[in-house]
What does this fold into?
Amino acid sequence: MSGVGPLEAHLRERRDAGRKLLIPYVTGGLGDQWLDVLWAMADAGADAIEVGIPFSDPVMDGPTIQEASQKALDLGATPIGILDALRDVDVSVPLVAMTYYNLVFRTGHRRFARLLADNHVCGAIIPDVPLEELDDWARAAEDGGVETVLLAAPVTPDDRLAELCRRTQGFVYGVSVMGITGERQALAESAAVMAKRLKAQTDKPVILGFGISTPEQAVEATRDADGVVVASALMRRMLDGAGPEDIGEAVAALRSALDTAG
Amino acid sequence: MAVDDSLMGMPSASGRFGDFGGRYMPESLVPACLELEEAFTEAWSDASFRDEYARLLRDYGGRPTPVTDCTRLSERLGVRVLLKREDLTHTGSHKINNVVGQALLTTRMGKRRVIAETGAGQHGVATATACAMFGLECVVYMGDVDVERQALNVFRMKLLGAEVRPVSSGSRTLKDAINEALRDWVASVETTHYCLGSVMGPHPYPWMVREFQRVVGEEARDQCRELLDGADPDYVVACVGGGSNAAGTFAGFVDTNARLVGVEPEGGAAIGHGVPGVVHGSRSFLLQDEHGQVLEARSISAGLDYPGVGPEHAHLASIGRATYVSAGDAEVLEALQVLARTEGIIPALEPAHAVAWLLRAAGTDELPTGSTVLLTMSGRGDKDAEQVMHLLSP
It folds into this structure.
């Protein structure tokens, strides 16, 4: 892949049209309605959707995503099963896989990249692959046409941030807070700083995630960032029994808040 | 045997031992790993740090520990058995060597809070001990299965002023305690040092912890030469969970002709049954399913209940410099009793795995009659007495 890939092109186009970007997350294999949830998210105005491929030891995730991952695994979810299920899903917005490196390593870099690309997944977020360990996967991903989204953290120094912004594809994922995923009462003060630092480094879409749960927090985060990822707040509802319709409504509420504020 | 003197030195710049190791960490933790690598590299070449470390191990930790010539056991087995007595250190296991080093490093980095994971509780107790001595805040994560089977160590940690946080996720053992410690660290990294207990995790931990344990092997080599008229033992044996006591022991003998043998628990034999994988920051052998989900290790010994193994052991195994075997729960229990009765030494369940292999292999091609064996008695059995009592009661 040279230049701008389809995920980045799609997000740039929408951002440049003045839209704040919304990327909801769903844990693949969580119950028998997760594909319907995916459709509902797209219909409710998601700009891209993160599909979690659950791992047994998700060290960056808080209790909600841990529980969702464990439940999906208990129900028999596998990387191949989840990706196969996406084969016939064409939701018109890009899908981005979020998983941990051992699943990629075990499957094989090239095979994993091909599995993503063959099943409409154009991006990958692998939080335990930092710059230092990126090369093997990045080569396979580029050959397979998959954009690799890198995470930036509040503690990332400026020189490292520059390198990270240079190498990330699709968008750059700003971790809004030093901590794990999960709902929080208020948006961390580090969120705005993170977004501003990233915007100063790159023209690629800057998306904030971690601890963004409510429409108000999403609006606040997008004062500086181009968009947000919302995960735990939606998965908490799913774990509490919410169906596709409820999740669609929650995504629609986020959408409407972002559009009104914009 | 050709001796490779580059073994067990510095890893590559990316923290690799051959194909194993690395730094597979979330971005939030990478700067802390870089900071730690720099701090350790600098401290380890600083004579005043080394002196202070050696002084603490001597005056506080009780080093050097002796090597005991086990005449009755030797007679019974037909091989000469020497035990490196890490069970005689302060806190009762080799873990103290590592935590004293890391606590010194913590204060050198200006951090005031320490977190740790523990399985059997030995690393937790050692960390709590060092933190008390240095006046550092200490939080220990421990799987709630282990909290139950190691209640005495939980109490000891609390007595020492540490907070013990039970972990109820996943398999509720060592692996999950590490996950939870990492989650704490992501949120606290600017003030907190993660005192990892074994030769695992992201670079520089496998290297740093091995260096802090190297004292075991270096002392033992000199002591063996004294006992054996300048000769080295034919075999050097240690138990392997993550593999820190084995790494420290092997480091003293890797450039001799001694055969190095690591003994894994049958239910957690990452080298024996695992395939290459990446968890907790490094590439090594790992018990996992066909998709890459990490499997739960199952062993009588909480300290060895880990599905992975330190990356340097994976390297030593893959190049054939060390051999890794395993021992099952029943023979481990038997070995514990044999050593207690013949030598008056009650081993912890972890080194009882090494003793079990010794009993099984002695007199076979694996360990021929007339050989000399140095075995690291990594910890004493007090912590396991209650569990063993229940296991042995009819």
DSSP finds 15 helices and 14 strands in chain B. Residues 63-93+214-392 of chain B form a domain with the Rossmann fold fold (CATH 3.40.50.1100). Residues 3 and 62 of chain B are 32 Å apart (CA to CA). The mean pLDDT of chain B is 96.
